Amino acid sequence: MITKPKGTSDIYGRDAKIWKYIEEIVDGVMEKYNYNYIRTPIFESTELFHRGIGESTDIVTKETYDFTDRADRKMTLRPEGTAGVVRSFIENKMYGESLPVKCYYNGTMYRYERPQLGRDRELTQFGFEVLGTDDPISDAEVISAAVNIYKMLGLKDIKVHINSLGDSESRDNYRKALLEFLEPNKDKLCDDCKKRIEKNPLRILDCKIDGDSDILKGCPTTIDYLNKESKERFEELKSYLDILEVKYVVDPKIVRGLDYYNHTVFEIKIDSPGLSNAQTIGAGGRYNGLVKQLGGPDTACIGFASGISRVVLALKEQEVKLPIKEDIDVFIMYVNEEERKYAVYLQQELRMSGFTVDMEYTGRSLKSQFKQAERLNSKFLLILNSEDLDNGEVQIKNTETKQEDKISIEYIMYYLDEQLVDMEDSCDCGCDDHHDSCECGHDCKCHNHE
Ligand code: HAM
Questions:
Q1: Does the CB atom of residue 139 touch ligand 1 within 6 A?
Q2: Global pTM?
Q3: What is the CA radius of gyration of the chain?
Q4: What is the pLDDT of residue 426?
C-alpha cells in the first residue's frame, strides 16, 4: 500500500467541513477589512527564500524542500507566504498603485520539520500582508484582524504577545549586547549556534536546542535596547491596541525565527494545556527592509500568518460548537424503475430550487434506503410510489416529528420551504436573537448565541 508522506494529512469528512468553515470566516473578515485575495506560486526560485527569510534561519538551512527542475533551475516549495507576496508586489509593480496594498492568502506551505501534533511538513496557512505603510495603526489593525478571525471562530482565551525588535540602530545595539553576553558561554552552545554567533546571533534565541537552555537565562532583551524613536513607536502601537480593545502582554522573549522582521513582532497563543507545542496558532510582524532587499523600492510592510491545522486543534480542544451543516434537507426513496426516473427528475428540480437533496443510486432495498437517509441526517423523506405519482402526489415524512403527509407534487417546494423555515425558527438556544439578526448567517445553534 502506498501511504501519504510523513507530516502530511488527508483532510476529509467533518474535518474538511471545519477547514472550509475556517476559510469562509477568513474570507468574511478579510472582506470587512478590505484586503484582496492573492494567489502566488507554490514553488519559487530558491534564491527568493534564501534572500528573503535569511541564510542562517532554521527554515532555510534545515527545512526547505528544494529541487532542481528539468532545466536545472533551483526551485523551492514555499515554506511561508510572505516572501512570495513581496516578490509579486515588486514584479507586478504594485508599489505604483495606491498604497498600502492589502492582501490575504490561504495555501499550502512546506517545511521539513519533525512532525508532531500541530507541526506538519505540509501545512496550510492563511495570512495577510499590508505593504506600503509604516504607521503603527496598521500594526494594530493586522493584530486586531487576526484576533477577530479567532473570535469569530468562537475561540476563547486568546493571548496576544507583542514585542519590538526596533529599527536597525536598535537591533545593532542589541546585537552587541547579546554578543557580549554570549561570549563567556560560547563553548557551551550547540554546533549550529557556534556558527550563528558570528553570522546572526539573534537566531540563537530561537534555536530548538539552545533556545530554552540555561545558557540563555538572564540574556538581554531587545526591548531594553530600543532607541527613542523605536520606543515611541512601540508605545503608539500599544495605545492603538488599547483603542481596539485588543488585550496583549509585552513578551520580550519573542524574536521570531525569520530574519526579515524589525519593530513589531507578535505571536497569538491559545491557553490550552492540550495544545503543548502547538499553542502558538498565529504570528507575524513588521518587515520594513524586505521589499528593498529583494530589489524593490523602500517599502514598509507588516503581516501575519496562521496554521489552519493548529486552529482546528484549538477549536477541538476548546470544544467550540461550529455551525457546520451536517444534514440534508431531503432524501428521495423509490422502488421501481418508473419511480427511479421520476426521482432523478425531482432531485434535479429541488436542487435547482436551493434544497440539499440526495437519493438512492445503488439499488438498495427500501429498508436500506431508510437507513441511508438516517445516516445522511435527512430532515425529510420523499417516498415515491407509482400509484401516488399517477395521482400527481408524493408521500413526505418529517424525520424529526415523524409527521407524514401526502401532498400534491406541485406543492412540494412550498411545503418544504414552509416546514424548513418553521424548523429554523424553533431556536433551542434560549436567546432572543433569532435568525434575521444572526451575525454569522447560520442557525441559532452557533456559538454566537451562547
Ligand atoms: P511563522 O511563525 O513561521 O511565520 O508561521 C506562522 C504560523 O504558521 C505559526 O504560528 C503556526 O500557526 C503556523 N505554522 C508554522 N509552521 C507550522 C507547521 N510546521 N505546522 C503547522 N503550522 C505551522 C510565518 O510564516 C510568517 N510568514 C508570518 C508573517 C506574515 N509575517 C509577516 N507576514
A1: no
A2: 0.90
A3: 28
A4: 53
